């Protein structure tokens, strides 16, 4: 399971409908709103 970095829900990578690539890593989201929030400002959610 992956964690939706926007809302902290657990997301199954196998069935996730919403995902984004950022700096070579795939991130998974539970809903389109979480994906959009991440896409608009990924640095806010990704800890380097």
Q: How would you describe what is shown here?
A:
- This protein has one domain.
- The protein contains 2 helices and 4 strands; from the N terminus they run ββββαα.
- The chain has helices at residues 32-40, 42-45; strands at 2-3, 10-11, 18-22, 25-29.
- The strands form 2 sheets. It has a two-stranded antiparallel sheet.
How many β-strand runs? 4
Strand order of the largest sheet: 1-2
Distance between the termini: 21 Å
Share in helix: 25-40%
Number of domains: 1
Order of helices and strands: EEEEHH
Q: What is the count of helical runs?
A: 2
Major sheet: size, sense and barrel closure?
2 strands, antiparallel
Q: Uncertain runs with pLDDT below 50, 5 residues or more?
A: none
Strand content: 25-35%
Shape: globular
Q: Whole-number average pLDDT?
A: 96
Using brief descriptors, characterize the structure shown:
globular, 48 residues, alpha+beta, 4 strands, single chain, two-stranded antiparallel ribbon
What is the structure about, briefly put?
This protein has 2 helices and 4 strands; from the N terminus they run E-E-E-E-H-H. It is α+β, with helices and mostly antiparallel strands. The strands form 2 sheets. A two-stranded antiparallel ribbon has the order 1-2.
SSE blueprint and pairings:
Elements (H helix, E strand, L loop, with lengths): L1 E2 L6 E2 L6 E5 L2 E5 L2 H9 L1 H4 L3
Antiparallel strand pairs: 1-2, 3-4
């Amino acid at each position: 399971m992956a964690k939706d970095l926007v809302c902290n829900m657990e997301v199954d990578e196998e069935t996730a409908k919403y995902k984004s690539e950022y700096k070579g890593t795939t991130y998974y989201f539970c809903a389109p709103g979480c994906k959009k929030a991440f896409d608009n400002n990924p640095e806010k959610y990704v800890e380097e």
